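Hey, weird one. I pasted the Integrin beta sequence into the form twice and got a warning about non-standard characters only the second time. First submission, copied straight from the form history:
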Amino acid sequence: MPSVRLPHRTTRLGSVVVFFLTFVLAVFTVHANEELSSICQGAQNCGECISVNPECTWCKEDVFEGRRCDLEILLQEAGCGNITNPLPSVVPTEDKPLSEANADLDAIVQVKPQMMRIKVRPREPINIKLYVRQAEDYPVDLYYAMDLSHSMKDDLENLKGLGTTLSEELNSITRDFRLGFGSFVDKTVLPYVSTVPAKLISPCTGCASPHGFHNALPLNQDPSLFANRITNTTVSGNLDTPEGGFDALMQIAVCGEVIGWRPKARHLVIFTTDASFHFAGDGRLGGIVEPNDGQCHMDPNTNMYDFSTLQDYPSIGHLSAKLRENNVIPIFAVTRDQTPLYMSLENYIEGATVGTLDEDSGNVVQLIRSNYDRITSQVRLTSTAPDDVTLSYRANCKDQTYEDTNECSGLSLGDTVSFDITLTAERCVEGGMTSFNIGPVGFNEELQIELEVTCECDCQGLEEANSTVCSSGNGTLVCGECDCNPGRYGVKCECSGNEINMESTDPSPCRTDNTTRTCSGRGECICGKCVCDNTGNPGEVISGQFCECDNFNCPYSRGLRCGGPDQGMCVCDVATRQPKCQCNPGFEGDSCDCPTRKDMCRASNGLECNAHGTCVCGACECFADSQFQGKTCEKCPTCAFGICHIHRDCVECTVFGTGRLTPEQCDMCTVNIINVTSIDEYTEDNPKCNFPLSDDCTFQFVVVSENETVTVYVEGAQTCIEPVGKPTLSVEEIRWIVIGIILGIVLIGMILVCAWRLYTYVQDKREYAQWENDCKKAQWDQSDNPIYKSSTTTFKNPTYGK
C-alpha cells in the first residue's frame, strides 16, 4: 500500500501543539515542585523533614552547603549523594484464601487478607486491597428480644403460635441456627413503673412482675424450647410510654457467654416493640445518675439484669459501639407509628435495619426473613482507625467497575467483592505504632492492621559527639547536621554567643526591604542569617529567607485548618510567600470547604438536585422559580402529591421518551421503573399519579416504597381522547371554507342589523299613531284653579238700606 505524506503545514501545526502542551506541563510541574520545596526547606532536622511531607528527603552528607531538607531531585542536582528517603512497606502477615462453598465451619474464611503490617510516613497515602465473600449456609444465632408491656399482649399471643413457623423459616436460611428469647419492660422505680408493693408483683390483672431485662432462654438448637418458653410468658406493665429496651440491647451485646453467641456465626437480634425508647439521661428522672458502664451485669441465678436500678440507660453512641464490637446486628420490628423514630437509628447503629410490624405481630416471620435477606445482600466496611488515620474506599462490587463507596449491595451469598482502600497517617502517632481493624459490618472476621508511622530517621540514632565537622568539636553531628554545644551557633557551630546580634552592626541581611523587623519577628539573626522559630508543633513550619512564610496561618473550615487533613493542607505559596490552602482531590475553595463531588446532590430518583436546582459546593441550590425545595430539591409543599412530582420526569423520559429532561439527564435516573398493564393493584396504600403527556393523552403511575427500596409501576398504555374524525380537505378547500364562514358571519350580521332597524321603525310608527289618536279623543273645559284665591274681597253692610 503506498504511503501518504501529510502536508508540511499540518506537520508543523502538530509539532506546535505538542510543544505547547509540553511547555504547559513543564511550567505546572516546576510550580508544583517549588511549592513542595518551600514546605520541605523549613524543616530543622531529619525527623521533621520526613514528617512534614512525604515528598521531602534529607541530605545526610557531612559536607553539604545547601538546604538539607528538599525534594530528592533537587538534592541530587545540588550534589548530595547520601539522601535519606524512607520508603513505605506493606507486608501481609496472614493471608488465607477465601473459602469455597460447603467448607467446614472451622475453615470458613470470608475476609482476605486477615493481618497486615504497614510502614508509612505521615501524609503518605498507601493502597491496600481487601476481598470479602459471604459464605453460604453460614450459622445464624437469632435472639428474640420482646417488649412485654401490656400493650404488646396481642403480639405475644400471636407469637406463641409462630414458634414452629419461625424455626422452619430459619431452617430454610441455614441448617445451623440457634434461637434465644428475652424480654424487657423498664426500670422498676418511679416514674417508670408503679412502686406500690402489690403493683411490683402484678401491675395488672394476670400480669407478671415488671423487670429491666430477663434472659428467659439463652441461644440453643432446640426450637421446641423456644416455643415452650414463649408459651409460658405473660405480659407485664409500666407507667410511661418509652420502654427500657436499650438496657436489654446493651446486655444482649456484651454478655456473650450468658446469651450464648458463637464466635463463628452471624449474630442477629429481633427487637420488637410498639413504643419509643429511653436513653442516656432519662435515668435521672428516677434518681439514677450512675452512667452505664457497658459491662455485663446479669445475675446467674435469676438471669435478670441486676444493675437496672443502679445505672442509667446507655446512650445511642455507646450502644452502637458495643453492638459493633461484638458483631451484633439489631433488626427493629416496630409498629407503623414508631417506624420513623427507629429508622433514624439506622444512621447511628451500623448494620441496623427497621421493619414495620403489624398491630398483632402477625408478619414477624416474614419481616425477619426479608431483613435477613437485606442484611446478607450488602457488604459495608467499617473501621476502628484512630482520628490520626484517614481511610478512603473504592468498591468493585459485581460489574467490574469501581465506585467511591465502602458499600456493595444487591449481592447473593457466595459473591466476591473487593475494595481498594487508601490509608493515610495524617501525623505522627505516640510511640510510632498504632493498630486498628477494617471489616464488614456484622462479620466476625476483619483485617487487623499494625501501622508504623515513620517520624524519625535511622541516622538520628548514630550521633558523633564533638565532631570535627562542627568547627573542631563544637557540636554533635547528627544526620550530617551539627547540633551545636551551648554557646555556639551557626550551620557548622562557627559562631559564638557574642556574634548573635548582627543587627547591632549590620541588620540588613536579616531584614526585608523597607522594614525594621528582624526575621519578620519570627526568628533570630544568627551569623547574618535568619534562623526561624520552632513552633513546637510537629508539621508546623516557619520558612523563608526572612521567616516570612509558614504553613499554618491558613483559613479555617469546620473549625479545622483548610477543613482538616481530609480536605486540604496549609502550604507556603511560592509566588506570594503567603500561606494558602492546597486542597485535596475532591475539594476546592480558599479553605477547601467546597466539595467538587456531586453525590450529596443526588435525589432519590438519581437526578442532580431533582433537575430543579444546581449543585454548588456539594449542596443543592433550588431554582428560585421552582416549587421544589429541601436538601435535594425533592420537597414540594404546594404540590398535591410531592412524591409524584419527584418521579414524573424520570418516568416520562424513560418510558415515553418525552419530557423536559435531556438524554444525559435521563441516563442519570436510577429509580426502578416497571411497566405494567394496570396499576390498580398497587394503589391501595399509595397515591395514583396522573400527568399530561400531550394535548390529548395522559400517563399514570404509582410509587411504592418498601424497606427503603422505591419502585415505580407505570401503566404503559396512554389514556388518550380519541378524535371524532380526521380532516380530508385540501388547503384550497379549507381556504374557501374559511372565507365562506367569514362572509356568512358578515351577512348574518347585516341581516340582523337591518331586521333590528325595521323592527324599531315599525314600533315607533305604531306608538306615534297611538299618540295622535289619544290627542283627538281628549275633551278640554275651562275652569278655575280650585286653590286659587282672588285678591279682591267684597263685604255687604247688613244695615244698608234700612
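That's the output from the first submission. The warning seems to come from a hidden character in my clipboard, not from the data itself. The longest strand covers residues 416-425.
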